[in-house]
C-alpha cells in the first residue's frame, strides 16, 4: 500500500512538473502570450518622401529607416517607388535605404512603409558601446564658458547618469551667461544637444544623438531628438530639453548620429512626413505572421499547426477534461449527486449548441415530457428495448415539433437542437426514469437538478474564452489536470454534503 | 466557512468515515473487482453459501428466460407464500413478496391482490434487466419467504427487519438492525426511509437508531422504544457474518441477515459497498474500529497466525462490545 502511495506521488509529481515545465517553456521561452486578449499593437508607419527632382542629374535619395534591433520586430516592410532602384544597407547600427534613378523630373513622391510590433524578440542583443571618447576641440571664450559650466557639474554628479542629467539641466538654464554664450541665441533642441555634446566630450563622456519617432496614431510627426550615453552596461537615454531620463515605451528609434534623416542628391526641397496608425491583432495570429521574421517554428508543433477546422474541433475536445474535472470536484469534494459521471459533461457539450438558458429550458421540457411518456409506457408493460425505442422516437418528434413551432414564431433558437443533444436527451430520460423507479421521485428530482447544475457549471467553464485559449495553446496543462485527478483518486476526506449528513453526531456532542 | 472546518475536524476526531475514505481505503483496497459477481448476483451468493454450509433462505427455483416463466407454477408448487427477486437487484427493488394465494389470485404482504399475469410481467421485467445494476439482463429468483421473529413485531412496520453487520477481513466491525417504516414501504433500506438501529456487538442489545440521518430512540410508526431490545441468537448472527469472508473473499462487506421464526439467522445478501449510515445508528465512527482491526491483523500476520470465524467474533466483541449509550 505504501509503495503504491509512493508510486502515485511520484507519478503525480512527474506529471505536474512536466505540465508546468512545458507550459513554462512555452510561456517564458517561446514567449507565447498567456491570454488571447493579449493583442499586440500593430503599428503601420508610413514615411512619405517628397522632393523636387532636378532634370539634369541622376537622383540618389538616402533615408534612414529603423534598425529594428531591439524591442521591435518588423512584420512587413516595403519601399514604394516607381522607377527607382532600392537598396538597403546597414552602417554604424543604422539602416539606410537608398533610392536611385538615372532620370526624373518634377515632384517626386516615395513611400516607405513599415508594419511593426513589439515582442517576439527573445534574444537580447548584447549591447556594445564605448565608455570613453576624445574631447571635441574648442577655443577661446567658448572654452572658458564650457569649463566654467563643467566645474559645478562635476561637483554635483556621481556617475555617468547623474553627470549627463546634470549637464542637461545646466544647459537648459537659459539665464546662465555661460549657457547663453555657448548657445549663441539658438535655443533649439539641436543646438542644445550640440552644446551638451561639447560639454560631455570635455569630460570624455560618450554621447550619441538618437532620433526617435513617437508611436501615436493620427498625429503628424517629426523625429524627436534624444541623447544617449553608454554607462558600460546599457544605453541611458536623456531628453535634451528636460533632462528626463529613460526612453518612453512608445518611442521608436529611427536612427542615431548627427546626420539628417534624408539626403537627396540631384533634387531639392526634400521633405519627409510621417503618418502612422495602429491596429490590434490576436497575439497568436501575430506570431504566425512574424513566422518568417522570427523563429516561430514552435507553432508548427502545437495544435495551431492543424487545419483550421480540426483546430475548432480540438478547441472543444481539449475542454472536455476541464468539464470532467468540474464533475469530479462537484461529486467527490462537494458530494453533488449527478446522473452518472459523464452525462453532465455530455449535456454541457450539448449546451454549446443550444446556449445555456435555452438549453436548460429545452432539456427540462423535453425530459419532463419524455419522463411522462416513459411512465405512461410503464402501464403498458413493455419490455426495455421497445420502450427505449419508443422514447427515442418520441424525443425526435418532440424536438421536431419544438423546432417547427419556434421557427414559426420566429425564434431561430429552437433549430439549434442538433443530432448530438438528441441522443443525450434520450439517454438522460432513460437513466432518469430508471433512477426514478429505483430510488423514488424525490431522489430523481435531486439527481436531475444536480445534473443540470453540474452541466451548467461545466458548460460555463468550458466556454470561458480565456480558458479555451489557454488550454488549447498550452495543452500540457492537461497533464497538470491529470495529476490533480490522480490525487483526487486517493482523496479520502469528507465530501461537503457529508458534513451536513453526519450533523447528528455533532448535535449529540454539544448536548 | 469556519463552521464547516469545525464540523470537519469534529467528524474527523470521532472517526466518522466518509464515502471517499470508504472507497479509497476499504472498498478499493479489500474488495477485488473480479469477486463482485459473487455478491452482486444473489443466486451465486446463495450457491456459495449453501456449499459452505451457511444458512440462507431456501431457493425454490430460478427463471432465466421468458420461456421459463411457464415453469412458474411448477416452481411454486403447492406453496402459498414465496418471494420473487431479481438476482442482481439493488436496494430491494423489484422484489415481490407473496404472502398468500387463493384460487388464481395472489396477495402481497401489503395486501394488494394481483393476478398471475401481473406476476409473469414482473418476472419478465426482471429478466429484461429493469431492476438490475446497469440494466443488464437478469435472472429471477424464487425463494422461501422469511417470517420475521415475533421479537420485531412491536418495533417494525410491515416488511422484514434485517440485521446488517459490516465485516472487515472476517472481523465484524459494526452492526445495525434495520426496521422498515410506513415511509419505506416495508423495505429495510435506509435511504428509502427505514430505521437503522445500532447493535452492541458483544451482547446483541439494540442501541439508539437513525432515521433519515437523525438520531431517534422510538419507532416513528409504532412509537415503541427501539433501544434496549435484546436480539435473540446474537452469537449466531455474528458467526454467520464473520463466516461470509471465507464465502466470498471480499474483505469489506455488509452482510444482511434476517431472523426467521423457524429457521433462525439466515443470510439474505452481501453488499460490497455498504452504506455509512450505520455510523449514525451506532453513534460511532467506523474508522477507529477498522483501524483497530487492521492493527490486529497486522499483529497476527507478524506472528503468522490466522483466526477462524469464532475467534474473530470474540476479538471483535472484545474490542468493540459493551458500549454504553451516552
TrEMBL record, chain B:
Xref: PROSITE patterns: ATP_GRASP (PS50975)
Keywords for this protein: ATP-binding, Manganese, Nucleotide-binding
Gene3D superfamilies: ATP-grasp fold, A domain, ATP-grasp fold, B domain
SUPFAM superfamilies given in the database record: Glutathione synthetase ATP-binding domain-like
Lineage: Bacteria, Pseudomonadati, Pseudomonadota, Gammaproteobacteria, Pseudomonadales
Protein name per the record: Alpha-L-glutamate ligase-like protein
Signal peptide segment: none
Residue span, ATP-grasp domain: 46-301
Amino acid at each position: 500500500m505504501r509503495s503504491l502511495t509512493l508510486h502515485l506521488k511520484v507519478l503525480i509529481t512527474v506529471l505536474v512538473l512536466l505540465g508546468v515545465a512545458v507550459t513554462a517553456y512555452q510561456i517564458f521561452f517561446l514567449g507565447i502570450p498567456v491570454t488571447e486578449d493579449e493583442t499586440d499593437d500593430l503599428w503601420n508607419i508610413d514615411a512619405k518622401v517628397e522632393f523636387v527632382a532636378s532634370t539634369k542629374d541622376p537622383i540618389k535619395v538616402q533615408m534612414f529607416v529603423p534598425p529594428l534591433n531591439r524591442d521591435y520586430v518588423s512584420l512587413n516592410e516595403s519601399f514604394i517607388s516607381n522607377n527607382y532602384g532600392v537598396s538597403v544597407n546597414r552602417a554604424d547600427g543604422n539602416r539606410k535605404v537608398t533610392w536611385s534613378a538615372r532620370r526624373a523630373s518634377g515632384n517626386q513622391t516615395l513611400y516607405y512603409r513599415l508594419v511593426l510590433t513589439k515582442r517576439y524578440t527573445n534574444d537580447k542583443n548584447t549591447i556594445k558601446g564605448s565608455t570613453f571618447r576624445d574631447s571635441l576641440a574648442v577655443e577661446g571664450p567658448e572654452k572658458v564658458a564650457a569649463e566654467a559650466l563643467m566645474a559645478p557639474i562635476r561637483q554635483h554628479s556621481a556617475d555617468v547618469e547623474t553627470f549627463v542629467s546634470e549637464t542637461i539641466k545646466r544647459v537648459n538654464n537659459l539665464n546662465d551667461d555661460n549657457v547663453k554664450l555657448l548657445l549663441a541665441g539658438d535655443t533649439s533642441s539641436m543646438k542644445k544637444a550640440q552644446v551638451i555634446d561639447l560639454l560631455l566630450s570635455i569630460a570624455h563622456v560618450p554621447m550619441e544623438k538618437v532620433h526617435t519617432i513617437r508611436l501615436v496614431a493620427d498625429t503628424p510627426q517629426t523625429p524627436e531628438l534624444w541623447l544617449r550615453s553608454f554607462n558600460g552596461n546599457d544605453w541611458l537615454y536623456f531628453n535634451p530639453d528636460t533632462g528626463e531620463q529613460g526612453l518612453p515605451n512608445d518611442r521608436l528609434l529611427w536612427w542615431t548620429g548627427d546626420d539628417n534623416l534624408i539626403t537627396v542628391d540631384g533634387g531639392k526641397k526634400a521633405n519627409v512626413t510621417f503618418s502612422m496608425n495602429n491596429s490590434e491583432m490576436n497575439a497568436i495570429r501575430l506570431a504566425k505572421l512574424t513566422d518568417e521574421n522570427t523563429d516561430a517554428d514552435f507553432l508548427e508543433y502545437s495544435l495551431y499547426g492543424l487545419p483550421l477546422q480540426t483546430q475548432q474541433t480540438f478547441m472543444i475536445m481539449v475542454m472536455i477534461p476541464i468539464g470532467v474535472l468540474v464533475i469530479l470536484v462537484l461529486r467527490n469534494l462537494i458530494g453533488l449527486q449527478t446522473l452518472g459521471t459523464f452525462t453532465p459533461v455530455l449535456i454541457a457539450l450539448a449546451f454549446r449548441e443550444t446556449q445555456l438558458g435555452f438549453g436548460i429550458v429545452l432539456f427540462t421540457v423535453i425530459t419532463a415530457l419524455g419522463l411522462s411518456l416513459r411512465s405512461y409506457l410503464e402501464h403498458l408493460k413493455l419490455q426495455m428495448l421497445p420502450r427505449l425505442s419508443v422514447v427515442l422516437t418520441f424525443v425526435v418528434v418532440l424536438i421536431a415539433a419544438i423546432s417547427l413551432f419556434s421557427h414559426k414564431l420566429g425564434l431561430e433558437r429552437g433549430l439549434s437542437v442538433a443530432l448530438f443533444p438528441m441522443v443525450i436527451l434520450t439517454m438522460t430520460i432513460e437513466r432518469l426514469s430508471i433512477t426514478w423507479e429505483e430510488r423514488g421521485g424525490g431522489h430523481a428530482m435531486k439527481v436531475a437538478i444536480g445534473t443540470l447544475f453540474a452541466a451548467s457549471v461545466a458548460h460555463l467553464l468550458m466556454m470561458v474564452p480565456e480558458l479555451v485559449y489557454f488550454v488549447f495553446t498550452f495543452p500540457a496543462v492537461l497533464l497538470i489536470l491529470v495529476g490533480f485527478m490522480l490525487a483526487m483518486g486517493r482523496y479520502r476526506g469528507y465530501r461537503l454534503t457529508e458534513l451536513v449528513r453526519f450533523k447528528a453526531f455533532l448535535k449529540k456532542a454539544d448536548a | 466557512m469556519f463552521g464547516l472546518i469545525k464540523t470537519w475536524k469534529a467528524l474527523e476526531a470521532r472517526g466518522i468515515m466518509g464515502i471517499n475514505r470508504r472507497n479509497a481505503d476499504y472498498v478499493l483496497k479489500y474488495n477485488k473487482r473480479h469477486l463482485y459477481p459473487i455478491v452482486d448476483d444473489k443466486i451465486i451468493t446463495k450457491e456459495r453459501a449453501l456449499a459452505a454450509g451457511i444458512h440462507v433462505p431456501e431457493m425454490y427455483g430460478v427463471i432465466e428466460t421468458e420461456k421459463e416463466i411457464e415453469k412458474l407454477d411448477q416452481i411454486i408448487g403447492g406453496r402459498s407464500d414465496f418471494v420473487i427477486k431479481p438476482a442482481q437487484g439493488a436496494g430491494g427493488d423489484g422484489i415481490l413478496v407473496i404472502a398468500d394465494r387463493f384460487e388464481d389470485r395472489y396477495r402481497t404482504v401489503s395486501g394488494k391482490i394481483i393476478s398471475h399475469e401481473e406476476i409473469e410481467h414482473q418476472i419478465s421485467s426482471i429478466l429484461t434487466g429493469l431492476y438490475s445494476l446497469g440494466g443488464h439482463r437478469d435472472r429471477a429468483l424464487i425463494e422461501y419467504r422469511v417470517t420475521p421473529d415475533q421479537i420485531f413485531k412491536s418495533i417494525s412496520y410491515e416488511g422484514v427487519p434485517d440485521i446488517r453487520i459490516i465485516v472487515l477481513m472476517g472481523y465484524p466491525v459494526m452492526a445495525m438492525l434495520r426496521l422498515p417504516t410506513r415511509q419505506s414501504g416495508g423495505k429495510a433500506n435506509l435511504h428509502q426511509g427505514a430505521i437503522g438501529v445500532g447493535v452492541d456487538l458483544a451482547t446483541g442489545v439494540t442501541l439508539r437508531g437513525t432515521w433519515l440521518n437523525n438520531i431517534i430512540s422510538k419507532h416513528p410508526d409504532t412509537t415503541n422504544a427501539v433501544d434496549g431490545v435484546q436480539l435473540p441468537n446474537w452469537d449466531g448472527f455474528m458467526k454467520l457474518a464473520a463466516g461470509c469472508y471465507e464465502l466470498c473473499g471480499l474483505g469489506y462487506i455488509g452482510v444482511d441477515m434476517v431472523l426467521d421464526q423457524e429457521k433462525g439467522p439466515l443470510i439474505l445478501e452481501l453488499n460490497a459497498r455498504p452504506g455509512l449510515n450505520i455510523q449514525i445508528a451506532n453513534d460511532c465512527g467506523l474508522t477507529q474500529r477498522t483501524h483497530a482491526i487492521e492493527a490486529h491483523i497486522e499483529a497476527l500476520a507478524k506472528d503468522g497466525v490466522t483466526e477462524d470465524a469464532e475467534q474473530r467474533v470474540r476479538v471483535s466483541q472484545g474490542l468493540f462490545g459493551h458500549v454504553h449509550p451516552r
